[in-house]
Amino acid sequence: MNINGVQIDATFAEAFPMRATRVIITAQNLKWAYHAAQAMTGFATSVIACGCEAGIERELEPSETPDGRPGIAALIFAMGGKTLAKQVETRAGQCVLTSPTSALFAGIREGDKIPLGKNLRFFGDGFQIAKRIGGKRYWRVPVMDGEFLCEDTTCTVKAVGGGNFLILAESQPQALAACEAAIDAMKKIPNVIMPFPGGVVRSGSKVGSKYKALSASTNDAFCPTLKGQTKTDLSPEIESVMEIVIDGLTDEDIKKAMRVGIEAACGLGAENGIRRISAGNYGGKLGPFLFHLQEIMA
After folding, report:
1. Which of 92, 104, 121, 137 has the greatest number of beta carbons closer than 10 A?
2. How many CB atoms lie within 10 A of CB 239?
3. Which of 101, 65, 54 is nearest to 247 (CA)?
4. Could you tell me the CA-to-CA distances from 73 to 24, 105, 209 in Å, in that order?
């Protein structure tokens, strides 16, 4: 398959099951909602070392939030429900409770419940007050700028992590430009996040390592500086490869995001140095979800 002079490899991205939840953070204005959301979703690029993968899904208009203020929807993914609950509670306590004017609400209403404000309320040292509105329980926790309003619980659902595709280009600036175009398009798709910095990974990994302590290591077949030293997957003109990783609430969400992202990257075309689109295929070692590039782009 070829799109605008860009080869689409006959391969697939391999992904794995996760648990996920969505939270809604509101504040006096969007600036402060972003401060809280960026802190809560910080250091959450990969479950390999961060405990969870998280990111901002989208901005919310006041008409879309429970308290009628500007807000941010954030998605948080983990390998299991217990880990996810711990990550959500820790990050909410350290990053949202502490952020001026913030409030925190559930963003998913069906599934397995986990605490949101249920335990954070104890920060109120006995002065916290419970309120039940519309069948939902909230906590009003007194803090120095007024009150921290937090819903009692949120819900978790089955999800998919590790969807991905690789952009192969003639130079580093060209690869990055294609990634930026892809991310701009993918941010418009609901129910997905791209958890790495700016949505882009320059250190794609393979499963395993020559060092027993490591579960992942550099994807040497796609490293341009290792041509001639390893079994490379790169032709001579490829000098830079970057990866976009996608976590989604369903496999269909990931397919939609991959499609618009690849379309955007290919939009720059071969004349701008974009030569191939490939994917992280680990031979079945990583997970049961297979996203075939050519089927997605057909």
Report:
1. 104
2. 18
3. 54
4. 5, 10, 36
The letter for the amino acid at 225 is T
Rounded to whole angstroms, the Cα distance separating 268 from 171 reads 13
Half-sphere exposure of 226 (CA within 13 A, CB side): 11
Same domain, 81 and 186: no
Q: How far apart are CA 232 and CA 203, in angstroms?
A: 16
Q: What is the CATH number of the domain that holds 97?
A: 3.30.70.520
Distances (CA, A) of 176 to 162, 272, 291: 20, 11, 23
CA dist., res. 34 & res. 45, Å (int): 18
**Residue 227 vs residues 210, 236, 276, 280: alpha-carbon distances, Å:** 19, 8, 17, 18
- Indicate the number of domains in the chain: 2
Predicted TM-score (pTM) of the model is: 0.94
